Amino acid sequence: MQITLEGHDQPVPVRAGDTMLEALLRAGVAFPFSCQAGNCGTCKCELVSGDILELEHSEHALAPEQRAKGIILACRTQVWDDAVIRRIDAEDLVMHPSRVMRCRVLELETLTHDIRGVHLAIEAGGALTFSAGQYAQLEFAPGLSRHYSMANTPDEAELVFHVRHMPGGRTSRYVAEQLKIGDQVKVSAPFGIAYLREQHAGPVLLIAGGSGLAPIQSIASTLLGRGYKQPVALYFGVRGERDLYHETMLKDLAARHPSFKYHIVLSEQKSGGRRYGLVHEAVDADLTSTENLMAYLAGPPVMVEAATALLGTRGLAPRQIHADAFYNQL
Ligand SMILES: Cc1cc2nc3c(=O)[nH]c(=O)nc-3n(C[C@H](O)[C@H](O)[C@H](O)COP(=O)(O)OP(=O)(O)OC[C@H]3O[C@@H](n4cnc5c(N)ncnc54)[C@H](O)[C@@H]3O)c2cc1C
Ligand code: FES
C-alpha cells in the first residue's frame, strides 16, 4: 500500500494502521502538522483518490462543508488502499529546510508571574531560516520536549520563546523552575503553517492570547520592519493586569508605525481605562470591513477556536485565517 503526494517524486509506503501523516513523516516528506490529534487543522489536504478511514476529529480542524469537498486531515486518516493526495494552499506554502540545533540559554526573563522569556544562541546545526509565526520543538531534557513559537523575527540570530507555566505541566514547570543560563537545549525547527503570507498586500488582523503574543509579535515586527503601510491591528487578550507583558514594546511599535494599532483586552479584571471582555468580542465590535483582510491567531485553544469561528461568521474564508492553537501534546 502506498500514498502518492502530488508534486512529490516517490510514492510513500504505508504500514497497516498508519495514519497518512505517520507514513509521510516516516518517509521524510516535509508535510505540515501540529497537534497530530485532529484538533488544529494544520495537516489538511485534499484526497484525490483512494479508500480511506477517517478517525474522530474536531469540527474546528475540519468543518463538515470542507469534508464534503474531499478535504481530509492527514493525521486522522488511515489508508485502506493506495491513495493520492494533494496539498492545499500549495501556492503560498513556504518550506524552509528543517534543522536540529544545539542551543545554549543566553538569557531568562520574567515576563509575567507565569511566563518566562527564554533566549537561545544557536551553537551548532544552524543557521535557521523560518517565516514569522512558525514554531520549534524544544527539548530541555530527555522526555521534556514541547512546541514553542519563535517570538524573534527571522532576521535575528538569537531565538526567543515565551513559555507559560501551565498548571500541572511538566515541561513548562521545568522551564519555570529549573532552566538556567548556560543550559543546553535541543531545538528542531521550523514547523507550522500559520506564518506571515509575504505576498498579501491588504490589512492585517493579529489576535494573541497570553503567550500567544510570541508568534504574533514576530509577525507584527517583521511586517512593520519592512515598512508595511496597510493597517495592522493587534488584539492582545489576557486575564488581568498581572498577565500583561510587552506593552512598552507594543506602544513603541505604534509610535513608530502609524499603520499599527494595538488593543489590550482584559477578560477577568476591570481595570481603569482598559477594555474588558473576551478578545474575540472586542474584534467583533471593532471590525468594520473584512475585505482583503488576512488574520493570524495564536494562543489558548478556546480563544483561537472562538476567534476563528467569529471570523468565519464575519465572512473570512479559511485561506484568510492562519491560526496556531496551543494544544497540549500528551
Ligand atoms: C503549535 C504550538 C505552539 C505552541 N507555542 C507555545 C508558546 O509559544 N508558548 C507557550 O507557552 N506554549 C506554547 N505551546 C504549548 C506548549 O507546547 C505546551 O503544550 C505547554 O507548554 C504545556 O506543556 P507541559 O509539558 O508543561 O504540559 P503537559 O505536561 O503536557 O501537560 C499539559 C496539561 O495537561 C495536563 N495533563 C498532564 N498529563 C495529563 C494526563 N495524563 N491526563 C490529563 N491531563 C494531563 C496537565 O495538568 C496540564 O494542564 C504551543 C503548542 C503548540 C501545539
Ligand atoms: S496535525 Fe492534524 S489536525 Fe492537527
Protein architecture, described:
It is a single chain. By secondary structure, the protein is α/β, with parallel strands linked by helices. Helix content is 19%, strand content 33%. The strands form four sheets. A six-stranded antiparallel β-sheet has the order 11-10-13-8-9-12. A six-stranded parallel β-sheet has the order 17-16-15-14-18-19, sandwiched between helices. Strands 2-1-7-3-5 form a five-stranded mixed β-sheet. The chain binds flavin-adenine dinucleotide and FE2/S2 (inorganic) cluster (FES). FE2/S2 (inorganic) cluster (FES) binds next to loops.
Keywords:
single chain, 330 residues, alpha/beta, Ubiquitin-like (UB roll), Elongation Factor Tu (Ef-tu), domain 3, Rossmann fold, 3 domains, 6-stranded antiparallel sheet, 6-stranded parallel sheet, globular, binds flavin-adenine dinucleotide, binds FE2/S2 (inorganic) cluster
Task: Lay out the secondary structure.
Layout: E1 2-5, E2 12-13, H1 20-26, E3 44-49, E4 52-54, H2 64-68, E5 71-73, E6 77-79, E7 83-87, E8 99-110, E9 115-124, E10 135-141, E11 144-149, E12 159-164, H3 170-177, E13 184-191, E14 204-209, H4 213-225, E15 232-238, H5 247-256, E16 260-266, E17 275-276, H6 279-286, E18 294-299, H7 301-313, E19 321-325
Parallel strand pairs: 1-7, 14-15, 14-18, 15-16, 16-17, 18-19
Antiparallel strand pairs: 1-2, 3-5, 3-7, 4-6, 8-9, 8-13, 9-12, 10-11, 10-13
The structure holds flavin-adenine dinucleotide and FE2/S2 (inorganic) cluster.
Residues 33-36, 38-43, 61, 73, 75 line the site of FE2/S2 (inorganic) cluster (FES).
